[in-house]
Amino acid sequence: MKIIEYINQALSKVNDPELHKPLTELGMVDSVEFKDGVAKLGILLTIVGCPMKDRLQADISGALADISEIKSVEIVFGVMSEEQRNNVKKLIRGGREKFIPFAQPDSLTRVLGIASGKGGVGKSSVTVNLAVAAAKRGLKVGILDADVYGHSVPRLMGILGQRPTAIDQTFIPVEKYGVKVVSMEMFKPERSDPVAYRGPLLHRVLEQLLSDAYWGDLDLLLLDLPPGTGDIAISLGQLIPTSEIVVVTTPQIAAAEVAERAGRIAHQMKQPVIGVIENMSDTSCSKCGEAISIFGSGGGEETAKRLSELVGADVPLLAKVAFNSQLREGGDAGNPLVLSDESVFATFNSILDKVIIRPKSLVGVRLGVST
């Protein structure tokens, strides 16, 4: 085998850091030359100023390091033409025009909308820690920050100021902690700019965030929904009919009564309500160890009970997430607590054990069948 063939073989094992497909498959390898121990490569980037350029250079050099005949590597980066970018878009979309991959009959992605009846119950914090915990156990996970008005996921994930890489009308979600993230905040000129959209435009925004992003193959997509029972909650049921809902509440009975409404709108949209998470539950006194109910008690059980009666089936209380100031501090710093606190990880891991298995059905479940 010639050295050029060895090089091409090595390059076929290097994936684009954002598209997660081989460079050779994406048409990013423009030229390969070898002379006097020097490998000269022409690599085409999808866009000018690609943020993954340095990462690509390191990955390519690492892949060629095992070829003993190569003494040095020279990489010349260029930019794809419009036709080449169109080919990439067709490739990543399977030859189809723009569509919502999670709404297709062949989709194996579980789509969970994380809902609440009111704001301030820690819904976004639950979403982020649940997603990072899922990635930590090896699942391919995405978060769509669908809270168009009150988006906070970028801060909680530590990606403030980062924007998706755009390939014409297709964009690549920002990735952190193994989780792909898309948020309305990433598309505003300034973080402080308010979003003042009405019904039809909100539906269009959600549709674009779902269809214009290249999510790749996901096991789990979490949507951080706005509080209440407005347009986005209705649009989710219309755009992804197979989506399911998890309701977040606090122990306060007044909050539980409002949280029930989020489950009711999901039921009206024929979305399964698969469980309730009680956030900010009892915590222990740091001095005496006595349980402290800062926000009261019983809200999670009450919400689960009412929703079970509503849907005529068991809607379980999935977990009680204890009030923890470190959870808040980790969110403010962009470091989800499941990464550093084993007890918190165990709580969210137990939720995953209950929600990632579909009850009474094998539809959409990956089967370990070898042929």
Automatic annotation (TrEMBL):
Keyword Secreted: yes or no? no
Q: Which UniProt keywords apply?
A: ATP-binding, Iron, Iron-sulfur, Metal-binding, Nucleotide-binding
What is an example of a GO molecular function annotated in this UniProt entry? 4 iron, 4 sulfur cluster binding
List, in alphabetical order, the GO biological process terms annotated in this UniProt record: iron-sulfur cluster assembly
Q: Does the keyword Endoplasmic reticulum apply?
A: no
Q: Which residue intervals define the domain MIP18 family-like in the entry?
A: 7-75
- SUPFAM superfamilies assigned: Fe-S cluster assembly (FSCA) domain-like, P-loop containing nucleoside triphosphate hydrolases
Q: Which PANTHER family match?
A: IRON-SULFUR PROTEIN NUBPL (PTHR42961)
Protein name per the record: Unannotated protein
| Native source organism of the sequence | freshwater metagenome
